Amino acid sequence: MSVSTDPRWPSEHYLKEDWGLRGWLLTTDHKRIAWLYLVSITAFFFLGGLAALLIRLELITPPGDLVSADTYNRLFSLHGIVMVWFFLIPSIPATLGNFLLPMMLGARDLAFPRLNLLSWYVYTLGGLFTLAAVIGGGVDTGWTFYTPYSTLFSNSAVIAAVMGVFIVGFSSILTGLNFIVTTHKMRAPGLTWFRLPLFVWANYATSLIMVLATPVLSCVLMLISVERLFGIGIFDPALGGDPLLFQHLFWFYSHPAVYIMILPGMGVVSEIIACFSRKPVFGYQGMVISIMSIAVFGFVVWGHHMFVAGQSLYAGLMFSFFTFLVALPSAIKAFNWTATLYKARIIFSAPMIYALSFVGLFTIGGLTGIILASIAIDVHVHDTYFVTAHFHYIMVGGMVTSYLGGLHFWWPKLTGRMYSELWSKVAALALFIGFNLTFFPQFLLGYQGMPRRYHEYPADFELLNVMSTLGAGVLAIGYLLPLLYLSWSLRFGAVAGGNPWRATGLEWTVDSPPLKHNFPRTPRVTEPAYAYDPTAD
């Protein structure tokens, strides 16, 4: 495969095609749709981040002296709903996946370009419902919408928030279907299944989860609306319903959703580590098997969220066993990434710093997940800040870090421009330091018994909360800096050339930015994935 290294700006590329508003809002180019998603999820990310910052400012002192208890409930609900449903789940698949998947496969576009555009409009419609809920006074149920509170007692805008999440689920299904068909039907000649980049495998597994699990979420959210609007006894025990039915249905989707969020990040990190260690990924086939194993095992561990809900002892033991078991594929990845780095000539670029941060933070999150898989310990720390810290080490320390790493890695391909290497490293280090300062104290708070979702707490917990809030400030800097220097690079960044990282993969064989239909002619693949030569310069 030939690689373009021309340092000049390409004369024709997808960003030059029809710069009018109509050209963007009616585009069927997967690369432009990726930009539509990028702008949308960035807006939701900073909305959810603002709510998180207000939460930490409230918790800097023991008494509830910044906002009322009711406002605090609405803040953490807004933070969770926006971050989980409108940022974490769509982030990598809808942006980097949309942009890269066809190019990595040697295709001109996704299998269903119009369906791809529709998925963004569905996502936007769901977001508008959620924003309507915020404007209408907010919602105070938390991101989980637990019954019977959400159906009987809450006086907040539950229906609008639920409908927003219900609608955005269809965007996930459409994207998943598109990715599955594209991966099966549109691979370039010679691109066999075991020559696929791990990023493609990760998005393929994620798409299977989205298509199979999201309809369950849609059904349970519709049941909430039906019970709340019409008083039908689905979850209300006074009417013959069962509130635990909601938990089973909700977590049957929502634990696989954890892997919707984290699997694409694992694919990103695999690409980055291979590139900047200049080595093929160690144990490629084992990585593929572990990716698909996580997608399967993710469907049989939902009950570990319900150890204190009164389920039978035997069910608890089985869910505990499968939770321990699902850690094995993740451990395989961590060991294989470490083996890839072993004796490598590591290039500490900004994407690599993000990738290495991911490995460290995800490992801590995974190990604490093993702790929570033990029923006795889970009962002790359930609904405390220990669970909050574990969740954020996986979701923020893992997924957000990998998302930013991938955005920096492929930014030259998206834009044809380079960013400031100095400021990007500063941002990556600020994120790592700020994140640990924010969430590691919460492990200690939770183990000592501080419950989450309270806006007041005993004075004994003040020091650790002050540390956590200080870390949140550093973390905010780590998030704001990329917004600034990446935006600056769009106008003033140096021209990137086709392959500034000297990476392998079909996406690096075309100009930066790429042509509208990616390839001037259909490529033919003759090498395995990650054909790096460790002895080359």
**In the CATH hierarchy, what is the superfamily?**
Cytochrome c oxidase-like, subunit I domain
Helix content: 55-70%
Largest sheet: none
Estimated structural class: mainly alpha
Family: Belongs to the heme-copper respiratory oxidase family.
Subcellular location: Membrane
Keywords: Electron transport, Heme, Iron, Membrane, Metal-binding, Respiratory chain, Transmembrane, Transmembrane helix, Transport
GO molecular function: cytochrome-c oxidase activity; heme binding
Explain the overall architecture.
With about 525 residues, the chain is mainly alpha-helical. The protein has a single domain, classed as Cytochrome c oxidase-like, subunit I domain (Cytochrome C Oxidase, Chain A), CATH 1.20.210. It is built from 16 helices and no strands. The longest helix is centred in the middle third of the chain and has 35 residues. The protein is globular and about 65 Å long. The N terminus is likely disordered. It comes from Halomonas stenophila. GO terms for molecular function: cytochrome-c oxidase activity; heme binding. Belongs to the heme-copper respiratory oxidase family.
